[in-house]
């Protein structure tokens, strides 16, 4: 089935392979009247670029985005926003060594069985490069959310076993370090750990946390379109993610109910919670407090250490994967996670706009 | 938006509130030619019943399922299967005490803000009772999967901090204990822990693990309809779930790539993996090995301990929740989780049926 | 695929066969806060009943609707509205004569090839009886549209070759005649024509026209979700419909552009059109004038005249179809058409609520 | 809502405006293993080009298609096929005269009210130019259908009041005349009629008929995803279409059932029908005979005759529309209609692949 579309009212469709002509995305359903230009999209996209990040692939892509439609005189028109990013720095021959090999930890085998054919160059559609399309779409979502007073931020919460608590730091500094960890000390330790991984021809995993501020209570569509359900799907759809947590996540299973429940209270006209173990979502609906989600990324499967596997003929073989691979995907996945969360939250906010007859009447003026 | 539908080719739509007339589900897209009757559905549904389970609500519902359509002479006809379960043992007056109160850990507040009105009786649509519809649909999915050689099993992996490793036990025994833990010793300890929770007017959480056997490689639709993404959404849509893991889940972030990759190898004509950290899914596509997913459930939010919260007028109040509540949802959620996994896997298998032109040709005879 | 669901934000899923346990429908996405009760739904449903209509089947069904969910204290709650109508007056044995026969003009052959099995009793799912579910859902849609100042009306425009021009009559009188033609003289002629059809063991076709008033300009989602495209799909999904027209429909092909264009003009603050050949929709978007659509129904295929056809073994046979069939479906299809139009228009209005960032902001208060 | 996507398993998403950077389309869900290249797509696209057609716009676009993804070594890979067509010959200044005017018969007014902003250049998204994306997608669908033994052909059935009966001619010759009418005599008369329209600063309408051969019985998903319902939606979504007919369409309403029913009969092992008034679809499911549909196109609304209308300020004004417009859209709409039919039929065939458990088993090997 057509699996490259996500969203209902705000709908994102991506295409493109690592070493094909280019990547692209269609953002359909963006409300009209929002300022948007290539410079802004580019700026967000650049946060995903390997750039001079020592822990990222040496592939040097400009990742220049072109808006082909949906924007007129600097403003969204309500029609689909088509964007294209051409591939430039392709070293397809790097992959001749693995064209017949099913790499461990990769989708090679699944693609081969599923489709009978696969574009082996750089992982084809299963490449992390595919996420550039998501970030371009996420940038649009973030821009629109901004108009609604909603912000989505993300950062590297852990690399290997080095974990930080964001509440003690300023997220604005996250991008000052190539690890995208907003804690200088931890970032330095993580950097050393990653250098060791590179030296060992190995790779590492980690956790990205996203915080969404400003979402009003009431967003999410039970019972299957719950906000946490949609967020989980969106984050788990990123390659390398193996777990998703909402609020305190896995930690809640060891608690008593009396510890885990967040008490509501009011002060003035506003409703607050004494704690936020729930991560801002109860029964699949936002409760007006910060939404907190985490995605757990496995170590990059492409490593240059020798591994045992099979080839397309079904023979047992040994490989060392060459090419320009990231020893960890997490720092570059921060903006990708943020994008998937933004896309999901915006769609949910738009859907919630018609939950009550009184709100629906408002929109008819 | 209409959030009560899940699935594409195999599509499930549920309705019903805890204390309304009844619950129901429409299963649309079930392939024709599969034997199905009420007795079988009932048998699966009964695994969700509180019955004589000491750790479950005392509400005594027969949960008798009625098939209204889609089955003719004991066989599915390809038309939608409508099923209804009438509510019988409703003690709506139990809820008069909380009708104006926003219970902590519940969706009350979100529903109120979202819709302006809510059926406060027993949580209305947000009640765990809603999952009866899911189990009826899941039973249909499991029946069809059975025809395809696919089995879905689940069990209680942990209650509070008591955790078991299923590989050492026989899942067939899971239902012999009210905890649905297939390890007699652990089950006994868990039982004692739950009795303490009841005595303390408190509640507990836990983990359900599902294992799917027999799914061929190639199932799942990148990049947004990946099999793990769809499974995450399906499981996270169950009330009380706060985290979902695929394979080794959160554990992978602390590993090296060389530890985490599963090596492929062949023996005879078959492809195997030396380990299954990935939980049977790589790049969002099944790899032919067992699919393993876990859902983390928070402690039941309804506790009879006194809690602080607000009422509908926005006043700060204190409540003790009365009524007939489960001190833990996990044992009854086992079959619910299993159902959501079955629904999702079947839909994905059906979609994958047309991935290649050669397969599509086969179906045209 | 699951073909029994229509709509996006306002989503309708039906189930049920002519001679199964019952029919039903789930209306998901209805905005909360709208008054609704069984009496009102019943009243609309009764317009579809054969009743004492001499031109309708003698099958005598009470078609009593039961609301199972989604309504609390007389008001919609935003949760799915499940409704069931039990079958009562089934004469399944009437069908023993045709159980192995593929009736001409019916879906028997298609169902048999598609599913390998079919519920032959009364056409099973392909029966006109299935439309009771649509009407129950349409009643909900009409109720909500009423809150928004939108009305949907329909009437019999033609029976056989007897056609009327509704602008000369009062639609309110349509239901005074069993033909649902709001022109007494034409209705009488049509009645005589239908009596002749019955005497001749034959059947007749006709046209239903729907007029929607009060839809603001701007509704409809180009390029594939255009309002006229969605209306066409909705009407063509009614059994027996073979053509759909918007506005002047087929007549436009013989005109010059200068004749067919509707001039806009303003008077005071309002925009008007000098004519409405377009039927209120331009480029797939409503233009604020009356929306006019027509559905063309073929003659009832069940006739008691002898016909040639084949049986399930593939033998050539002759049949005379017995049972209780309508000599024309049009009068009973009026409310069905109206329902499909109401469902479609409401969904489109809800979707349009988020077309502009300013409107979206309004809904966030 | 995101209205620019159509299809379920075979899903098409388009973007682009008449005078923006370019047009594009994402074809997601195409089965892997089908030969495809730009030359073939271009060839189909060229049938939509104004070229040296005297009855088409003088805008001279190369309409060169670029495949950006989804094809590897000349074969589809199962991943989304992204295609882009850049705009080149834009004379945006042609539109300065109408930038503030709501053209009669156009979507200008609807877009303005809906979105608050519109790209007035050449109609923006509402331009007929948008259909280039549909044709590129339709070419892919036709290629895949070819592998399955299904062909979709279309031709101009009428221009103004000049109508032909295709059964007497060879459709292969349709493209030999700029009218795409496969009847030399009628084509000549139509040509003269169109020259008169041009001379009179006026425009004309007409009918396109599509014939689909080779679709097996059983395709179509009752009750809302019926094959005729989906075809109606697909064709009505083309700008300028005001009516859709299946088989004998509007003609059936004046007939007796005994005249309109198509008798089945068998000869050897095959099932035939003695007539095909139904147009190959009964009860929304294909019956194995030719599928016949017609789309009725209104006269081009852009005419250079003076017309009365309003401007964006709401003032009554008079306009003569300049620019390079087609006096009739029908000949160029033939391949567009064919494309929409091909997309719809392929999607329906793919969905039908899992209608029976036995067929589903086949695809699991």
Radius of gyration of chain A: 21 Å
Report the span from N to C terminus of chain A.
40 Å
The pair of chains with the biggest contact is: A-B, 116 and 117 residues
Q: What is the tally of helical segments of chain A?
A: 8
Portion in beta strands of chain A = 15-25%
Strand order of the largest sheet of chain A: 1-2-3-7-4
Derived from helix and strand composition plus strand pairing, the structural class of chain A reads alpha+beta
**Global outline of chain A:** globular
Helix content of chain A: 25-40%
| Quaternary assembly | homotetramer
Mean pLDDT of chain A: 93
Short account of what is shown:
Four copies of one chain form a homotetramer. The first copy, chain A, is an alpha+beta fold.
Folded structure, characterized:
- Four copies of one chain form a homotetramer.
- Chain A has 365 residues and is α+β, with helices and mostly antiparallel strands.
- In chain A, 25% of the residues lie in helices and 23% in strands.
- Chain A has helices at residues 38-46, 108-115, 131-147, 184-199, 227-236, 257-260, 330-352, 357-362; strands at 5-6, 11-16, 22-28, 65-67, 71-72, 75-76, 81-86, 101-102, 151-159, 162-163, 206-213, 241-246, 264-267, 270-273, 281-282, 285-286, 291-297, 307-311, 316-319.
- In chain A, strand 5 and strand 6 (75-76) form a beta hairpin.
- In chain A, helix 1 crosses helix 3, helix 3 (131-147) packs across helix 7 (330-352) and helix 5 (227-236) packs antiparallel against helix 7 (330-352).
- The relative contact order of chain A is 0.17.
- The model of chain A has no long low-confidence stretch (mean pLDDT 93).
- Chains A and B meet through strand 1, helix 2, helix 5, strand 12 and helix 6 of A and strand 1, helix 2, helix 5, strand 12 and helix 6 of B.
- Strand 12 of chain A pairs antiparallel with strand 12 (241-246) of chain B.
């Amino acid at each position: 089935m057509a699996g490259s579309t996500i969203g209902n009212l705000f709908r994102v469709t991506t295409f493109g392979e690592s070493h094909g002509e280019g990547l692209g995305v269609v953002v359909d359903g963006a409300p009209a009247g929002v300022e948007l230009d290539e410079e802004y999209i580019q700026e967000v996209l650049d946060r995903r670029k390997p750039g001079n990040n020592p822990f990222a692939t040496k592939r040097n892509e400009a990742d220049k985005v072109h808006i082909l439609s949906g924007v007129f005189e600097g403003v969204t028109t309500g029609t689909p926003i088509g964007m294209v990013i051409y591939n430039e720095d392709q070293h397809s021959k790097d992959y001749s060594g693995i064209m017949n090999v099913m790499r461990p930890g990769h989708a090679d085998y699944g693609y081969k069985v599923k489709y009978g054919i696969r574009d082996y160059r750089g992982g084809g559609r299963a490449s992390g490069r595919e996420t550039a399309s998501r970030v371009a779409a996420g940038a649009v979502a973030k821009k629109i959310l901004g108009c609604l007073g909603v912000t989505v931020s993300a950062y590297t919460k852990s690399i290997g076993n080095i974990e930080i608590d964001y509440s003690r730091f300023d997220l604005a500094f996250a991008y000052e370090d190539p690890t995208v960890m907003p804690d200088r000390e931890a970032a330095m330790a993580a950097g050393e750990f990653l250098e060791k991984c590179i030296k060992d021809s190995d790779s590492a995993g980690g956790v990205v946390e996203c915080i969404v501020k400003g979402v009003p209570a009431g967003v999410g569509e039970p019972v299957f379109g719950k906000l946490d359900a949609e967020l989980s799907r969106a984050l788990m759809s990123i390659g390398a993610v193996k777990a998703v947590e909402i609020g305190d996540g896995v930690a809640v299973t060891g608690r008593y109910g009396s510890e885990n429940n967040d008490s509501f209270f009011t002060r003035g006209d506003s409703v607050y919670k004494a704690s936020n173990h729930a991560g801002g979502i109860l029964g699949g609906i936002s409760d007006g407090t910060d939404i907190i989600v985490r995605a757990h990324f496995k170590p990059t499967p492409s490593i240059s250490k020798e591994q045992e596997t099979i080839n397309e003929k079904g023979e047992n073989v040994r490989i060392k994967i060459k090419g320009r691979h990231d020893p960890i995907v997490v720092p570059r996945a921060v903006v990708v996670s943020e994008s998937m969360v933004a896309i999901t939250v915006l769609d949910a906010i738009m859907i919630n706009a018609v939950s009550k007859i009184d709100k629906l009447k408002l929109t008819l003026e």
